[in-house]
Amino acid sequence: MNAQQALEYSMQPFIPMFIYGDYDAMESERQRGEEAMKALLDEWRTNEEPGFDFGVILTLADQNRELCDQIGEARLRNLSSPLLARNLTDADLCAGIGKMQGRAASAVAREVRGDRDAYSVAYVRKPIKGTVLGIDIETTGRAPERGYIINVGWEIMELTSDAVPHDPQAFYCGIPDMYRETGVPLADIHHIQWSDLDGKTPFREDVKLQKELLKLMKRYPIMAHNAAFEDSWFMLHLPGYAEARRAGKIIVIDSRHICRSVDGEVRTLPRESAPASLQNWARRRGTLAADENELHLGLDDTDLMLRTVQAEFNLKNMFLK
């Protein structure tokens, strides 16, 4: 499906009740919808004048979630997502390093020249400074076009050797009432129960929360562990995010990439041990005790990430003196 076909698809009436109960029909419609979203998202990212508003993609994503609820979250849980990015782009990585070092992203790009191993040098070439908005979300799955954001937490921290994260915020966000009976998906990981979400406004409907987040994201670069995950979800859940990202008003920093580039121990440890996971990195840096586990709640994980990044930067003497 190309972008024009995807646009034509988006203009068709969405009348889901005609196919509810017919699994094959619902699955076929889901695949078409996700293919359309992928085509439009690719067009949005590569064409400076895509010819459509990003709201078209957000509407398709909302429709797809409604359809996926009827198909059943358990059926789709292990299905890969065409709209979940696995990594940030090189341009994003260079922009993040540049922001933390007070220099142009183009200067970092000239040093790296597409060589992934060169990032380990780029991160330490200039002192780290500035302020970041640490953020983490918990969701009902891995696919942003199928699931819901149910918990978001953030803190602000100056990038100095002794800074303490401040202005913490945490929110639970509601999901469709059908999950009252079926249970909150992935509760075995994040331990969020229906009682935490009951009566809460869904993220996609919480205009106040959306505006507050977007304002902070434009003011500070955002830092997340495996930031491509948060970036993919905010693209399909936070109005205005995609536009601000493309305009360069939002810069995303991946603390997992920092770990993989700066922490030399990562390369010596078995890959199957997930050495760059936040939990294992934090244990090595002493910000999490050996017998403690990552909590998988937005604010708690954000705080742990920021303190662990700070510990890594202190260990390597990377802060501005």
TrEMBL record:
SUPFAM superfamilies: Ribonuclease H-like. Gene3D superfamilies: Ribonuclease H-like superfamily/Ribonuclease H (3.30.420.10). One of its GO terms (molecular function) is nucleic acid binding. It comes from the Bacteria. This is Exonuclease. It comes from Collinsella intestinalis DSM 13280. The lineage of its organism: Bacteria, Bacillati, Actinomycetota, Coriobacteriia, Coriobacteriales.
